């Protein structure tokens, strides 16, 4: 029986992927990080890390494409939220290298869960293996993958605990009338305690929307008026009937809070008077 065109396409695609990986099989990128407390000002920590990575790359026969740095960045910051590591991810998505070298695994993150999550993302999604130049765990080897699998299992459990705590904490805060997370809606800003305070300039836009609706204006008309006046949404975009409806339906503007929490098969609908000041009556 002849091979179908679909299978032939799949084979060509697989061959193309294998060929692309073979091209970068010996290409590596180094990632170094140092916090402010680790002498980011004079760069001593970065120099030490980079020297170790370059020496290791040479000893292993890797072509070191680039060494990317995150100076003065805390290890508590998630890897994807850092400028330097975002550069690493972008290069990985372009298929520029196949191995990421770090001085120690804690350069990825101080918390194990974030380090393992970053390593798994690099491996599973982008085909990039992680190697520490000072620690005996090589995710390119079966033993290294086994060790990391154990760590990943621990990280998964930790993620579940963190998720549950976050769910319970947000639900408890909402049940007390507090703002339970997310970005502040148009017309409000976050205070130091995580609550909401009125932003008077933006609040005028909210009052204008409610006023025009009370006068009988349609959602389409309100959106058109706001766009014609050069008024931007919370995210700096144009107004649409749906964004106008969102403002009109949001109970926070009337001084209330409403949340629907779902986690692990549990659902909680919370409707309470809020602790924040209302913008409209």
Q: What topology emerges from the helices and strands here?
A:
Blueprint: H1 5-23, E1 27-34, H2 44-60, E2 63-71, H3 83-93, E3 99-102, H4 112-126, E4 129-132, H5 142-175, E5 188-190, E6 196-198, H6 200-214, H7 219-228, H8 241-249, E7 256-263, E8 266-273
Helix pairs in contact: 4-5, 7-8
Name the features.
Hect, E3 ligase catalytic domain fold, 281 residues, four-stranded parallel beta sheet, Rossmann fold, two-stranded antiparallel sheet, single chain, alpha/beta
Commentary on this structure:
By secondary structure, the chain is of the alpha/beta class. It folds into two domains: 5-140, Resolvase, N-terminal catalytic domain (Rossmann fold), CATH 3.40.50; 172-273, Alpha-Beta Complex (Hect, E3 ligase catalytic domain fold), CATH 3.90.1750. It has helices at 5-23, 44-60, 83-93, 112-126, 142-175, 200-214, 219-228, 241-249; strands at 27-34, 63-71, 99-102, 129-132, 188-190, 196-198, 256-263, 266-273. β1 (27-34), α2 and β2 form a beta-alpha-beta unit. α4 crosses α5 and α7 (219-228) packs across α8 (241-249). It is elongated, with a radius of gyration of 26 Å. The mean pLDDT is 82.
Distance between the termini: 75 Å
* Average pLDDT taken over every residue: 82
CATH homology superfamily name of the largest domain: Resolvase, N-terminal catalytic domain
Portion in helices: 40-55%
Strand order of the largest sheet: 2-1-3-4
Instruction: State the shape.
Output: elongated
Number of domains: 2
């Amino acid at each position: 029986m002849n091979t179908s065109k679909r299978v032939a396409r799949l084979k060509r695609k697989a061959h193309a992927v294998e060929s692309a990986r073979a091209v970068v099989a010996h290409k590596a990128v180094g990632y170094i990080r140092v916090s402010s407390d680790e002498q980011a000002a004079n760069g001593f920590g970065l120099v030490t890390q980079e020297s170790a990575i370059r020496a290791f790359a040479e000893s292993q026969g890797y072509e070191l494409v680039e060494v990317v740095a995150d100076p003065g960045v805390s290890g508590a910051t998630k890897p994807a939220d850092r400028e330097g590591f975002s550069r690493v991810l972008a290069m990985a998505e372009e298929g520029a290298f196949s191995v990421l070298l770090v001085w120690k695994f804690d350069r990825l993150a101080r918390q194990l869960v974030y380090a393992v999550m970053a390593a798994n993302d690099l491996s599973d999604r982008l085909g990039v293996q992680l190697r520490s130049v000072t620690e005996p765990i090589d995710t390119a080897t079966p033993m290294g993958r086994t060790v990391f699998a154990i760590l990943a299992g621990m990280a998964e459990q930790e993620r579940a605990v963190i998720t549950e705590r976050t769910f319970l904490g947000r639900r408890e805060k909402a049940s007390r009338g507090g703002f339970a997370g997310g970005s502040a809606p148009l017309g409000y800003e976050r205070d130091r305690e995580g609550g909401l305070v009125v932003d008077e300039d933006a609040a005028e836009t909210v009052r204008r929307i409610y006023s025009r609706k009370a006068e009988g204006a349609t959602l389409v008309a309100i959106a058109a008026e706001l766009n014609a006046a050069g008024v931007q949404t919370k995210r700096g975009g144009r107004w649409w009937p749906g964004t106008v409806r969102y403002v009109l339906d949001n109970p926070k503007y009337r001084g209330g809070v409403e949340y629907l929490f779902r986690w692990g098969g549990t659902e909680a609908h919370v409707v309470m008077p809020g602790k924040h000041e209302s913008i409209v009556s």
